[in-house]
Amino acid sequence: MKIAITGKGGVGKTTVSALLIHIYASEGRRVIAVDADPDANLASALGISRDEMAKIRPIAGITELIEERTGAKPGSSGGIFRLNPTVDDIPEGFGYKSGNIILLVMGKSKPAASGCFCPEHALLRRLLRHLVIERDEVVIADMEAGIEHLTRGTAGGVDAFIVVVEPGRRSLQTAEAVKGLAEGLGVKRVCLIANKVRNEQDLDFIRNNLGDIEYLGAISFDNAVMESDIQGIPSYKASGQLLEEAVKIRNNLEKTV
To answer: Fewer beta carbons under 10 A from the terminal one: N or C of the chain?
Structure first.
């Protein structure tokens, strides 16, 4: 199962990602959790402590690895470097391991000039393709609000591209835009999860305005999620209802795979 999760900033896509990662891992499945959002928060959502998070190095920031694999220094542009670097050992060698989960923080490439295709970007794209196309584990990627890391070759291997929305027109407009971009890259299945749903009116609004995007289910607004963030514990430990709703969504996700 290869899943990419995105959505407008603040809708809760990282919370949804952490819930699905936890569900698969708790069932004994091996999961590669990919934080592909430059504003990396997936480690915190998974309940990893601050001291442990300090040990995690974003792949885009490991300069010695990038130079070794691509043949060029990070941030350089206009030179020659390998577009197909070796990456198969990176998950085990550079990922953070916790039970059945390997967490990879991708980080943000910093091109030396606008529009350049830099070595770190080449490594990140090749790594994501490797995870989606060539690995046997469940892969769940917490993406940024777009689909920057996906390429046509990678997108075709994604089982489901999930857009998380909250009640609101702007959030649903983002979902429509992402759906169009994803389908243009060859993603076969684009789905929607409604988050922060307060009542039946919120749910009706989303259902009536989601267009032709496949609807997977809803997660209720829960103050326990905010409290869990303050206390530094994962949301799935703070709210049994949240976890139950996420399990139903996972079951709907797998019905047609």
So the answer is: C
